[in-house]
Amino acid sequence: MQSQNAAFLLGPEDASRACLLIHGFSGSPAEMLGLGEVLAAQGMRVYGVALAGHSGNPDELIASGRKQWLASVEEGLTKLAHYPRLFVIGLSMGGVLALLAGIKHPDRIAGVVALSTPTSFYDSWPARAVPLLRYVMKWYYPLERMDFSNPRVQAEILQQAHLRDPHASIDFSDPQAVASIKKMVKLPIPALAELFLLTDHSRRQLKKLTTPLLIIQSHKDQTVKPSNANDLYRRTSAAEPKRIYWLQTSDHLIVAGPEREEVFTQISDFIDVIDPAGAKPEQSQSVQTVEPDENPDDH
């Protein structure tokens, strides 16, 4: 059985299209596997990269940073180098890395898909303190202040657990179980600081992106504020064509959430529009430009 933290390679070797899938910060290739299987079934070669430091052991993540993550993406691009049409699809931090790849390789990458992707994390005092805290604190416990009686919180945590074990169950009425989960999930602050620096670097470069771009964001994302999608749309002024597709009920992990089929369809349609020659006649569809949502955080 394949480890959830192992890279995966799917689809026909003789495909004309390939997709590099990039998971999020502290995540694993497993969160992108469902999407990868859908794309592979449509005749595409798919590589789900495992980013440096993302073995599942937080002590390894603490020793990695943006240079190593960017190098992992370059290794993934090299693995798919001989495919004529290459698309890069990233979730959250993976979306940041996908955008930077599109900027660096405009002639190599046919299109970029940014899922739940941040342009900034500095929207609160705790976030602004992260670059300084890295020198005095080692760990951040993201679940510590969450309300485990909230059904949305329960659903998101169970969703994450199912990526590791499809048969996992959690008794949210058990105080000991809740306390254990809150202490078990921890993120290294030095690596978080690297994520913030990577996102800052990407934001400054976005005006250079000329590659076709699809942004998919949920109004209900509790990790990346929906306003980030509008900011990304505005900053990528040279990307053409580009559009935002809004989800209504999903949380952050949209590739595994209740609207995942919509996400998969939008990505497939985007690829078919950018590369109509590689699409089956019944798959090819038109994509209309959608303007940014004026008040994304009001939904």
TrEMBL record:
Database matches in InterPro entries: AB_hydrolase_fold (IPR029058), Esterase_lipase (IPR012354), Hydrolase_4 (IPR022742), MAG_DAG_Lipase (IPR051044)
Active site residues per record: S92, D221, H252
Protein name per its UniProtKB record: Alpha/beta hydrolase
Keywords from the named record: Hydrolase
Record SUPFAM superfamilies: alpha/beta-Hydrolases (SSF53474)
Molecular functions per Gene Ontology: carboxylic ester hydrolase activity
Species assigned in the record: Dictyobacter alpinus
Region (Disordered): 278-299
Residues in Serine aminopeptidase S33 domain copies: 16-255
Pfam families membership: Hydrolase_4
Residues given in the record as substrate binding sites: F25, M93
Signal sequence annotation: none
